[in-house]
Design brief:
The structure is a single chain. By secondary structure, this protein is α/β, with parallel strands linked by helices. The protein folds into two domains: 373 residues, Alkaline Phosphatase, subunit A (3-Layer(aba) Sandwich); 152 residues, no CATH class. It contains 16 helices and 25 strands. The strands form seven sheets. The chain has a ten-stranded mixed sheet, sandwiched between helices. Helix 1 packs across helix 7 and helix 6 runs parallel beside helix 7. It is globular. The structure holds 2-acetamido-2-deoxy-beta-D-glucopyranose (5 copies). One 2-acetamido-2-deoxy-beta-D-glucopyranose binds next to helix 7. The site of one 2-acetamido-2-deoxy-beta-D-glucopyranose has 3 residues, from loops.
Length: 586
């Protein structure tokens, strides 16, 4: 590939070398982004992908504190590709009226998302595989997806049928791939786009989104979520695999809240079914594993490997048998929100594990930064990638997690009780110096508090029905349970409707003086009264979408001499004169 001047940006660095200005040409990097569907971290799926390990994990950095913010396909993918929280896209479900491709379009996001911005930055952009739910053989051209120079999308209602893919190439009428294995079809299309992209001088972005290891879904009535199908060449693999028997695996006592705590214990038939369900997922991932190797080899053969970033992640996690749950996602447990992110590329340490806290909201800001653009108006911040950035990460310790609607049971033994709408919640994950916590508030009025340093499997809910005595004995960082919860609730109050800067630095909404930047700092005793009196996160009912009227108070109090109440998304609301000492409120 010849380099051309088009391919480069000129960065003129003012450099006092012998009184001369030194002109340096910096080539914009290419980006290959691989997005799997429902891949787990906690059942060790990465350990069953040797080629991913060889080419990406061993040659790049594994981000072992990476989270999705809404654990279901479409809302999560919109979050990834827009850099905005689901509460700001309002794409909160897989189908209309609250989600799916039509809602994405309706929200004006088709003109306002990563591929469009990358084209504006001089990139050629390509996508193949699954984009969003409810992007179908009927609406694929109404309107066309914007922002891609080349695209070949899987379409509903066939998206999740492993041997009956229907795809639209560059907006043309759908073509059926019946009888061919969908992840292999998508891999071939990715190789084609890679060849196409490298015929041009501009840098390129190529996203590849195979459906593996999602369930094979047939949109009949009722909808069937069957085990993932795999290519016959992988049928012999992993016959002895079992889902790790962690403390939360089909526990003797119920765990969780809402519908989870009513689930019956699984019998041996269901346990074996679930183990085989997970084996099928691991086999389906083998096609992706092979694709990773071929993509790397092709980039290498073209001499582009050293100027290409390769991202590998998934839309959301997955649970099976943990907390007695049938196969599925949609929960705030680690199984569902804590997911793989691996990045290899120029300047990224090889074989490194980075403990920075990051989320899917950060991916678009990260990609835009690589492409040379800064977007502080987005809800995420760039993830540190280079050794230098990783050495002193500026990132925070919080992840804002949210969900609206229902949990969908998958597999043969899905529980009907789950079909209720009671899966609407707000959650806050905080991972900092000396703590690793999950705090949730559910539309049912229930709450959860898990301490993952003491209880990594999330079996002890300190806010559960019978937990008063446990909570009474609980301390962290020298503070009592009540003081901890009051801070977490206030942080969640801010994050659940944050926007841009207030998502990046949520404590500054509560403490504009800048004196509090972490949970540890907020725990100071002088703030006890202030936090106790804060409006609390609550719901008045369980709703299927982001209906603000059902979501309790929307404003928080601000620490300072003057009493102010503000909306976290921006504007000041009210300001009262209050010259008291907050600590007198104790
Ligand atoms: C890709 O699309 C952009 C936006 O339409 C356009 O400016 C650019 O020329 C296209 N690149 C190629 C190689 O056609
Ligand atoms: C195990 O549980 C499933 C789901 O509840 C049920 O359909 C099945 O009959 C049970 N099997 C046995 C052997 O009890
Ligand atoms: C990438 O490698 C090629 C040869 O393999 C070399 O010519 C080029 O200078 C390298 N580019 C960078 C940015 O290291
Ligand atoms: C859902 O939650 C509401 C409280 O908001 C409760 O009244 C209702 O019984 C719950 N439904 C189910 C099926 O659990
Ligand atoms: C989100 O979308 C739904 C469905 O269109 C709408 O009813 C709701 O008011 C929207 N929420 C917000 C906060 O805009």
């Amino acid at each position: 590939m010849a380099l051309s001047i088009l391919r480069t940006v000129l960065a003129i660095l003012p450099c006092l070398v012998a009184g001369l200005e030194l002109a340096v040409t910096v080539e914009k990097p290419n980006i290959v982004f691989i997005l799997t569907d429902d891949q787990d971290w906690h059942m060790e799926s990465l350990d069953y992908m040797p080629l991913l390990r060889k080419h990406i994990i061993n040659e790049g950095t594994l981000f072992d504190r990476h989270y999705c913010t809404v654990s279901i396909c479409c809302p999560s993918r919109v979050n990834i590709w827009t850099g905005r929280a689901a509460h700001n896209t309002n794409v909160t479900d897989v189908h209309p009226p609250y989600g799916g491709y039509p809602k994405f379009v309706q929200q004006g996001l088709n003109e306002n998302w990563l591929p469009v911005w990358l084209q504006d930055l001089g990139y050629n952009t390509y996508y193949t595989g699954k984009l969003f739910n409810a992007h179908s053989v009927d609406n694929y051209d109404d309107p066309l997806v914007k922002g891609f120079n080349g695209s070949d999308f899987l379409l509903d209602p066939y998206t999740y049928e492993y041997y009956r893919a229907h795809m639209t190439r560059n907006g043309a009428p759908p073509v059926s791939y019946e009888g061919q294995y969908s992840p292999d079809v998508v891999a071939e299309k990715a190789y084609g786009f890679l060849d196409e992209a490298t015929q041009h001088d501009e840098p390129f972005f190529l996203a590849v989104a195979p459906i593996a290891p999602h369930a094979d879904v047939i949109f009949a009535d009722p909808v069937q979520f069957n085990p993932a199908k795999y290519a016959s060449r992988h049928a012999h693999l992993f016959k002895d695999y079992k889902i790790p028997r962690t403390a939360n695996f089909n526990p003797d006592t119920p765990s969780g809240v809402s519908w989870v705590k009513h689930l019956p214990q699984l019998n041996d038939t269901v346990i074996e079914y679930n183990d085989e369900f997970q084996r099928s997922r691991l086999r389906a991932l083998q096609s992706v594993d092979e694709m990773v190797e071929t993509l790397v080899q092709k980039l290498d053969a073209k001499g582009l490997l050293n100027n290409t970033y390769i991202f590998y992640t998934t839309d959301n996690g997955f649970h099976i048998s943990q907390h007695r749950m049938p196969p599925g996602k949609e929960c705030p447990f680690e199984t569902d929100i804590h997911i793989p992110l691996i990045v290899r590329g120029p300047g990224i340490p090889a074989g490194h594990t980075a403990g920075v806290v990051s989320s899917h909201t950060d991916l678009t800001p990260t990609l835009l930064k690589l492409a040379g653009s800064d977007r502080p108006d987005l809800d995420g911040t760039p993830i540190p990638l280079s050794a230098e950035q990783l050495a002193s990460p500026a990132s925070g310790e919080h992840v804002n997690v949210e969900f609206w609607g229902r949990a969908i049971p998958e597999g043969k033994y899905g529980n009907d009780a789950m079909s209720a709408m009671n899966n609407t919640y707000k959650a806050l994950r905080v991972v900092g110096d000396g703590y690793s916590l999950l705090y949730t508030v559910w539309c049912t009025g229930e709450k959860e508090y898990y301490d993952l340093l003491r209880d990594p499997d999330q079996m002890i809910n300190y806010l559960g029905d019978d937990s008063a005595s446990l909570a009474a004995d609980y301390t962290l960082a020298g503070r009592s349970f009540e003081h901890l919860v009051s801070r977490l609730d206030s942080l969640l109050m801010v994050l659940k409707s944050c926007k841009a800067k207030t998502c990046h630095a949520p404590w500054t909404v509560l403490h504009p003086d800048g004196n509090v930047k972490t949970l540890n700092e907020a725990l100071h005793g002088s703030y006890d009264g202030f936090y106790r009196e804060q409006p609390k996160v609550s719901f008045s009912s369980c709703q299927p979408g982001y209906l603000v009227d059902a979501e309790g108070p929307q404003e928080v109090d601000v620490w300072g001499d003057e009493y102010q109440r503000v909306t976290p998304s921006g504007g000041r609301q009210q300001s009262f004169r209050y010259h008291g000492d907050w600590s007198l409120w104790t």
